[in-house]
Design brief:
11 strands, 14 helices, 4-stranded antiparallel sheet
Amino acid sequence: MMMFLQSLRMALGAIFSSKMRSFLTMLGIIIGVTALVVMVSLVSGASGAVTSEITSLGNDMILVSVRDDKGNPLRLADLEGIAALEEISEAAPAGSFNASAKYSYNEEYVSVTGTTAAYYTIRGLTLASGRFIRTTDVDNSAYVAVLSHDAAQELFGRADVLGERLSTGGRSFLVVGVLAEENSMMASMMSGLAVYVPFTVEASMAGEPYVTTVYASSADPDGTADAETAMNQYMLKRFDQDADAFQLINMSSITDALDSVSGTLTLLLGGIAAISLLVGGVGIMNIMLVSVTERTKEIGIRKAIGASRGSIMTQFLIEALLLSLFGCAFGLMLSWLILEAATIIAGSISFTMSLSTVVLAVGFSSAIGLIFGMYPANKAARKHPIEALRYDG
């Protein structure tokens, strides 16, 4: 233990005796660690934000679009059969068209979506006030509407609009609910200036009595693959085994694919950044070889007074390791500053260093210091004391 502490003290003395040279030696490690940590953290933060946006739309949601009904179109009553499937929790239609909406002197172009009560749960919507579309509204073709937060603000100039009347598509609707403001950018884009009405009313206004788009949720949030299979089999049976008659999208599979892509991208960028660390390791080995040559006489004196080959080797190995770890520390601090700046610039995305990334950087830097310090340390340890003492430099 005493020998280790003495070697550590001597290594620190050698490093701090030539601060500028030590810093320049560490520069390769600093750049390598910064590149590694920043690249991995940026990819992780960006992919995490996108995954969160997609998840906000409903990670257990399945979307089916009918392309060709084969003369046997889906009707509103058929959705009861879909919802009755063991793997499916709820199913709702979603017909839509764009129309001009008016209130007093304000007029905006909005998206009118016809649906049922189940749509609210499937999409994970939240009400700011009032209620959503009810089954009785659909059965009675009631002229009631639920507005998105943006639609209420643009048309009425306020969100508290329950009981007001809105004219859209030449029809007058009673506002019975207003959705909460969306925090998710993607959900906000999908909602936009949206007006939700009973499906039967939208079907009549659009002249499309059949269901062409179905939203369904999985009975088991972790079993969306089973729900996708059940929905696919139902649609194939309905449309004469023609897979081209419809398109099925599983939101969970999208997030899984995104995770796979981001993982591959992280490994790729991390590997590229790791090359900088190897370059830094070459720099450490180069300077350590110079240091061994400069300190040949010191090595000879130490050996002459009884220093073992192991203690000489340990001293130079510790010196190489410290250079690498100091460089890693500076690199981590620089990475933190860059990620903080990136978070401020991005605004909605938070970029942070994960513990696994820090451990990877420290571990890789330590390995670089030991591997590239091994040859100079071994060269120092193998010097003959008589020849070392005779060295004139």
